[in-house]
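Minutes, project huddle
Topic: does the predicted pose make sense with hexanoyl-coenzyme A bound?
PN asked that the exact inputs be recorded in the minutes so nobody has to dig through chat later. Recorded below.
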Amino acid sequence: ATYETLLVETKGAVTVITLNRPKALNALNSTVMAEMVAAMAAFEADASQGCAIVTGSGEKAFAAGADIKEMAEMPSAQFFAQDFFADWTSKVVKATRKPWIAAVNGFALGGGCEVAMMADFIIASETARFGQPEVTLGVLPGMGGSQRLTRAVGKAKAMDLCLTGRMMGAEEAERAGLVARVVPAAALMDEAMKAAEKIASLPPLAIKANKEAVNLAFETTLDTGLVMERRLFQVLTATRDKEEGMAAFVEKRAGVWKGE
Ligand code: HXC
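Predicted holo structure (tokens), as shared on screen:
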């Protein structure tokens, strides 16, 4: 499929989705959201694809937020009538059981920071800048910033960022636990590709179960989460890939995965 606001390429088992509105610093308008829903659904449905990377075109921005010019024109009632931004969580995050990585290459502000936080983890370039500046526009984060950021970095930094609108750099973001890895800007896509290829090379059912289990930690009590983890473990013991994985270990060879 071709998109107006995204570039989508498949490289082996990895889908690379590039937010592609560089003149607007990849601001996220309604078309971007609709196309992300479609691109992520295509990735999820394609059995040849094991991991996706979402990044921004150009060196300056991952995404500088929801499109302020679009929002400025929208009648107020439409935000509620359309449940504005809801598809990001319901159709991009929840509908995607395969992993995806955000490769953050510059400004990740407002909705840009929020989309990065929707990913399973973030790899940031040293030039990445994260922030939730919505307060300066008279609003607040609308795509998960007050919730996902607080869960990722705790109350102190989440309040600091949301109340002052300031940006934090890659190093601070890594220290705070928002970012998994920081790499030089020139190495960003290589590092993200290597991580994605590694994930795509591993047994797909186990990958899905690992993702589901980690996400449960944000949704449930420790007791329920531990039970669910054991159940997922027990379910995986019934897969061919578990037989193969353990046999391959014992026989000192690489496993060959069926996704069964
Ligand atoms: C629309 C945007 C944009 C955005 C940048 N642009 N961010 N357009 N929506 N979020 C456009 C600019 O208008 C400009 O286009 C072009 O991109 C380049 O931006 P500049 O501002 O000229 O670049 P620079 O001076 O380098 O500053 C970079 C920046 C700044 C610091 C990132 O652009 C900025 O502050 N952007 C807004 C960040 C923000 O507030 N994000 C949160 C959005 S609200 P033109 O054509 O004018 O030259 C949100 C959720 C809200 O995400 C939820 C509400 C319910």
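Observations noted during the meeting:
- The pocket of hexanoyl-coenzyme A is lined by residues 24-25, 27, 64-69, 107, 109-111, 133-134, 137, 139, 141-142 (CB under 6 Å).
- The chain has a mean pLDDT of 97.
No decisions taken; revisit at the next huddle.
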